[in-house]
Each structure stands twice: as C-alpha cells, then as structure tokens.
Amino acid sequence: MGTSYEKDVVVWASEQVALLRAGKLSDLDVEHIAQEIEDVGKSEQRELASRMAVLLSHLLKWKYQPALRGRSWTRTIAVQRKDVAYVLNEAPSLRGKFKDAQWLDLVWSKAVLSAENETGIEGFPEGCPWTMEQILDAAFLPE
C-alpha cells in the first residue's frame, strides 16, 4: 500500500482509485473506503440542510422585513432554491428528509436563529409556516 489515509487523504484516494481500476481489490484499504462512502452521504445531507436553512432564513427576512426587500435577497433565495434542486437531483433519496420531523425542526431552528441574528427580530414562528412546495416554488415569496 502507498500513502496512508491519515498522512494525505487526497493522494490516498487517488491510489485507491487506481487500485480499483486495476482490479487489485485485495490491496484496497477497505475500512477507510467504507468510511469515505459513508461520509459522502452525510455530506450530502449536511449540504441540503445548510441550503434549506439559508433559504428559510431569507424567506423569514423577506416576510418580516418588507422595507428591506431587495435584489440581494431575491437572488439569494433563487440561488438557494437552485442549489437545493441540484442536491436533490444528485441524490433524490434526500427528498425523504422533507418528511423527517426531527430534520425539519433542526433546519427550521437554524433558519430562525440565523434570521434572529441578522434582523434582531425575535418571536418568529416555532414551526415553518410554509409547505415544502411553497418553499421550493421559484415564484413563491411570503407576503
């Protein structure tokens, strides 16, 4: 085996790919490969949660600070929606997260905290007032 996983994960990954393509399966670092594959799924879940929290935070700001609405917010909302769509296109199974109450609560709480920090407003709804269809709808902006 060449470079250790702990020494340089990027070189290690390239070496593992070369071993796989060469069919040298007995030379693979199976435990670390399994760990990396598992981490990919977790990373995609974190990406979706992060994008959704930013999107929801901006929808809250849009609703509760109408005097400050501007191009920057509409662009951020549009970009986050596109990024969510991209993540879901790459990993359609993540749509199941939208039905996971614990995940939704976490994402909503992050969005509320972010909106509170940025606006100074307190007392946002305890739960998300919009449906997932509304949140992801390119034409939806809460009034």
Percentage of residues in strands? under 5%
| Ends distance | 60 Å
Report the total helices.
5
What's the alpha carbon Rg, rounded to whole Å?
Answer: 20 Å
**Helix content class:** 55-70%
Largest sheet: none
The stretches of 5 or more residues where confidence is low (pLDDT under 50) are: none
What is the strand tally?
0
Q: Tell me, what is the CATH class?
A: Mainly Alpha
Number of domains: 1
Compute the average pLDDT: 95
- Structural class of the helices, strands and pairings? mainly alpha
**Given the C-alpha coordinates, what overall shape results?**
elongated
Could you describe the 3D structure shown?
- This protein is mainly alpha-helical and 143 residues long.
- The chain has helices at residues 9-21, 30-64, 71-90, 101-119, 132-136.
- The protein has one domain (9-136): Malate Synthase G, Chain: A, Domain 4 (Up-down Bundle).
- Helix 2 packs antiparallel against helix 3 and helix 2 crosses helix 4 (101-119).
- The longest helix has 35 residues, at 30-64.
- It is elongated.
Throw out a few tags for this protein.
single chain; 143 residues; mainly alpha; Malate Synthase G, Chain: A, Domain 4; 64% helix
